[in-house]
Amino acid sequence: MEENLTVDRTRVPLSKEDFVSDQMVKWCPGCGDHAILSSLANVFPKIGYRKENFCVVSGIGCSSRFPYYVNTYGFHGIHGRANPIATGVKITNPHLSVWVATGDGDSMAIGGNHFIHIIRRNVDLNIMLFNNQIYGLTKGQYSPTSPMGSVTKTSPQGTIEHPFNPGELVLGAQGTFFARAVDTNPKLMTEIMFEAAKHDGTSVVEILQNCVIFNEGAHQIITSKDLRDEHQILLKNGEPMIFGKNKDKGIILTSHGLEVVTIGANGITEQDLLVHDQYSQDPGIHLMLAKMTPPYFPLALGVIRSALFPTYDDLVEEQIKRSKVNSTINCVDDLLNSGDTWEIK
Amino acid sequence: MIKKKNKAVTKEDVVVKFVGDSGDGMQLTGNLFSDTAALEGNDLANFPDYPAEIRGPHNTVAGVSGFQVHIGKKVHSSGDMCDVLVAMNPASLKANLKWAKKGGTIITDTDAYDEKALEKSGYKSNPLTDESLRDYNMIKAPITTLTKDALKDLGLDSKTAEKSRNMFALGMMYFMFNWKQEIAFDFFKKKFKKKPELIESNKIALQAGYNYAETVEAISVTYDIPAAALEKGKYRNLSGNIATAWGFLAASERSGRPLFLGSYPITPATEILMELAKHKSLGAKVFQAEDEIAGICSAIGASFAGAMALTSTSGPGLSLKSEAIGLAVMTELPLVIVDVQRGGPSTGLPTKSEQSDLMQALFGRNGECPVLIIAAQSPSDCFISAYETAKLSMEHMTPAILLTDGYIGQGSELFKIPKVADLPDIKPPIAKPNDPDFKPFKRDPKTLARKWALPGTEGLRHRVGGLEKENISGNVSMNAENHELMTELRFNKVMKIADYIPEQQVFGAAENDLLVISWGGTFGAVHTAVEELINEGKPVSHAHFKYIMPLPKNTENLLGKYKKIIVCELNAGQFVNYLRMNFPQYKYSQYNKIQGLPFNVSELKDAFNKIIKEK
How many A×B Cβ pairs under 8 Å? Predict the structure, then answer.
């Protein structure tokens, strides 16, 4: 097999300290972003690339200050445009490990168009979508992921619009990788980011992140100690879908769709449960899993989908390689002199 | 067959215009006519003139498509009034009669003048019979019938046969100019490789037109155009948009920076995107983005990663790109934005030409946001203008706007083929690995350009972004004095490019009564008008500006050498106001046209004569 050109491995072992920036981190104390930053700095040394081959790109918003806080090549863009900027970086230099830090305002609202198109193209990079369901940097207006009825500074009587579920959007745009994590579980974040890095194609990791100032407790129903066991399910490839404090609940697939069942009740055994297949090409069940929401269903965490499809950047390189072999135009002089020309003597 | 002797007239130049329904193949006919003229040794300039609709309403004035060709010994523009008008139907005749010279030749298809077509084109009576065209040399030929007759043995359906009538008309023109039909036959072979039946039908139609013209003696005058008076060398016919694309490919090759274009289709700039997409064998990476903003943002990302980055657009797209141009200014990255200007505002006149984006290019962004601006002056000049814009953008680490327009972008002319090795060197200031002195915003004292540090390079990890940067370190800074300093540095960096561009040249006397000023795509018409006036002994000189921001260093001094100044532009007066702003000590007159059409030489001469006479 041909050597994978996109991997340019480091010769010396790297540690978290190699990626710590000298800039003061200016997020609010208690913000979920701190945990995400720490998780990413844990992941980078594990990936095995040279430290010069990481590039972090962002748009605008609290999350988008990210590039300043990791010691890599970094680009802090403009609102909503992190994804096309990162696309240009990756196409130009496919050897780079490119990471996008973006939020629910940046990628679901002003950059929504770019978000669906980068996913459709399957550019090989990793998008960390910080979802706090609020605009933090502009001090508390509702976002496209705020639940219907959210009371915010621009919706004093509650929002009257349906929120996006980022997972649905990713899969609707033919996404090849979607995973979900919560900022309160750094170990899971690290694992998932590593999975995202391994995936060839656009990896979207939705991180449910808590904004302590403007939307404190937004994800309480999923992350609080007393609710989380009943309201979360961690999906693991090849394993039956079991959750609950006593590990006695599971997910089955019926002709009506997914259902929550109790193991042992009505003759249900572990054998009846749905087994997670994150690599399935067909996104049908992945979509059902991404759509599960409490209180009737647990929210799915972990890698929901990780399917193998050709990446945009690989196809670009392939077309160029093929053209170089087949074309009679191998330099600009060839081009200028191609077709009809004539001499004046 | 023995050739009949026609009266052959030798002419320095001839203007021919092909007009018809937008589905009549007038663009193809015109292109083939002009390629033939070039192969026969003439200088030339072309201008396609087509409606915004792909297929406008049949037989109406709104659906008329045209292609004008100016051929001769030496031509600078596509010409004003036509010596020969080929009109395929009444609507196209009605729309274009005003462009035909009195006494000129009009060739038209009499079969197209049925009652319905006359009514749809707005004619009250048939112009072929009502004497309204008596000032013209009318060649009335039943082109449709004759084409169908000629093709009857091929067994084509009536519609397909009719499609070749443009080639019948072109055959008549081949006779008129005494050209070799083999040139067209070779063209058909290449063009219709995949539809061999069309090679034969077009060939027969062209021959039939040629023979018809020869036998009926309808064409009383044939033209003999002396070969072009051109420098020795190798030439080709080239349109402005293709020349732009090729100039960038050459700049990429010479700079060693891979070409990246992020773009979104928009008339009249799309050909640049289509052309570059063809040249993957030269390593060009072309990304058709989801919108104009993604086009420029992907290019900015590409530039950060080390590509020679481009985005191509027209006026509405330039508006959408404004915020991102600011980002490129703030991050001090090289980037070329090509604006092939069209009539505005808003959607405006998509297929018509204008020079009305100048102020937008100069000032259309938030904040103090200077960029390099260069304006190409003719189709072939787009090549070197694109090359130079890319060169200066990279060497001076600044975004740049290259202004062309629909007229020169889609028009074509002869292009002297250079050797890529003879083009000027391009040396981008790329930072060396592990450079201990590297600081993201440390500058070259001469150019004020910062270093280009490419991701992947050892020892140069750094961050850039849209927030204000601290001088030298590049750290985010909200410091008041630093912001003022950085604003000045960004401005001075662009102004220092004046040390690296040629001084402004003047055609005609260095001191004179009248200085005519023009810029960008109007060079051909303005130059021709001034040249003719100088030959008539008038006290007039011409300065044509290509470098808009910064202006050449001698501009201020130069303007002081003339008693009167007139600035001509295809807008309401944008360059003239820019000059007023920069050099308020001088008085400027202006000549403006905002019709979506290029200048006519005659209207310019009238305007210049008038101002010369004024006391």
Answer: 206
pLDDT of B5 higher than 70: no
Across the interface, whether the CB atoms of A91 and B228 are under 8 A apart is answered no
Average pLDDT of span A139-156: 96
* Strand blocks (E) in B110-176: 137-141
Task: Quote the CA–CA distance of B478 and B200 in Å, as a whole number.
Answer: 72
Q: Who contacts A190 (Cβ-Cβ below 8 Å, separation ≥6)? A: A39, A42, A43
On the question of pLDDT at A49 being above 80, the answer is: yes
Nearest to B297 among A52, A77, A92 (CB): A77
ipTM for the assembly: 0.96
DSSP assignment of B417-454? PPPGGGSPP----BPPTT-TT--TB-B-TTT--B-B--
What number is the average pLDDT over the span B522-547? 97
Kindly state the tokens that stand for B483.
């912001």
- B361-369: average pLDDT: 98
Phi-psi region of B419 (alpha: psi -120 to 50; beta: other; left: phi over 0): beta
> What pLDDT does A5 receive?
44
Min Cα separation A276/chain B (Å): 34
Is 0.90 surpassed by the pTM of this model? yes
Closest CA to A208 of A226, A228, A236: A228
Q: In chain B, which residues have their Cβ closer than 8 Å to the Cβ of A85? A: 297-298, 300-301, 304
Identify which of A224, A103, A233, A122 has the alpha carbon closest to the alpha carbon of residue A177: A122
B24, B119, B467 from B162: Cα distances, Å:
9, 22, 63
Choice among A309-318, B44-53, B180-189, B553-562 with the minimum mean pLDDT: B44-53
- Distance, in Å, from the CA atom of B38 to the CA atom of B50, rounded to the nearest integer, reads 23
Cα-based torsion angle of the residue sequence B14, B19, B25, B31 in order, rounded to the nearest 10 degrees: 20
Rounded CA separation A40/A46 (Å): 10
The residues, any chain, with a CB within 8 Å of residue A187's CB and separated by 6 or more, are none
Rounded-to-integer distance, Cα A6 and Cα A74, Å: 19
**Nearest alpha carbon to residue A25 among B9, B476, B596:** B476
* Statement: residue B333 has pLDDT above 80: yes
